[in-house]
Description:
It contains 15 helices and eight strands. By secondary structure, the chain is mainly α. It folds into three domains: about 5-60, no CATH class; about 70-150; about 190-330, Intergrase catalytic core (hpI Integrase, Chain A, Orthogonal Bundle), CATH 1.10.443. α7 (about 180-190) crosses α11 (about 275-285), α8 (about 195-205) runs antiparallel to α10 (about 245-250) and α8 packs across α12 (about 295-305). It is elongated, with a radius of gyration of 29 Å.
Amino acid sequence: MAVRKHAVRGGTYWRLDEWITGADGVRRRIRQSKIPTRELAVALAAKIKAEAFEGRFFDRARAHNATVRQLWEDWRPISERDKGSWRDDVSRSKHLLEHLGDRVAQALNRGDIDEYRNLRLAETTLRGRPPSPATLDREIALLMRMCSYAVECGRLLQNPLAHVRLLRKPNVRRVVIDEATFARLVEAAGKEFRPILVMAYDTGMRKGEILGLRWSQLDLDAGTIRLGAEDTKTSKARTVYLTARAKEAIELLPRDEGSEHVFVSSRTGKGWVNIDRPFAEARAAMGRPDIWFHDLRRSFVTNARRRGVPESVVMKMSGHRTRSVFDRYNVVEDGDVRAAVKAIEGGQPVAGEAPWAGGETVGTVRAPWGP
């Protein structure tokens, strides 16, 4: 029995390499590597021999020649059915299919993923620079999910990318848009696009939540939006309260009886799907190509906290489930620290009211040090 030990990146595995005769009398070579233990390798060899004798193994093995493109065709309807952010999967799949689409998924390995990353890093995004490590991680994570689903459906024998590690490099932006900058952005934007910007800046809603907003979710008398679990990225329902400016922006929108969407494109007559072009035009017109649409959500979180709203309340408003993710949006700068010091000073006793005596005076506050 051709079962041998081999090493891969510091780990010890077992390899199966054997010729097996099928029920049709034809001899075929079976090779399988990275098997965790010798016992599993021996058991796998025995199973393959039994299935080959029964005429089942080679029929099943042929099904494992599915390409990455075929795996995406299987996964796309599942993504559309179960994920509110399925359009992100569609966007990421374009890059995967361009570079790996015709590759046999079961034959993919770490080298193929590194090659893919190098090809993608040589490309330029709409922002004029290579994709970020986080972007590459999301694309590879999608490919790994596709492979896992294919294993469950019998399309693959095992996930070939199970041991591939993501880059997981920090990808934290610190751009916070103040009211003056936002006013310039709105002025530079097209009239039809302005209400979408106001909703993002004043409510902190995610782009998908805004573009998918339906009239049935709105209660303008109460000034609220009801997002169901199916409408949010975190699958957690929440109520969004509108500012006066956001409420007015919605009230002024023409209601298209032929569409349930609040924000409808005049060009297509349907709900907005892609806002990359109008947003790119607006930021270019104001001379700030460095601004991203998602910066509006970060700005909502940071500005709300700076205006004294408790962080726990801001988290509830923005729909963040975990503190770690919220902290990425809550930008704390030197100005925030200086403001905190002034607030602390404002609550301290002034000279003559201090509980200590004979201290040195600093400004109007008596300090506890000194002779």
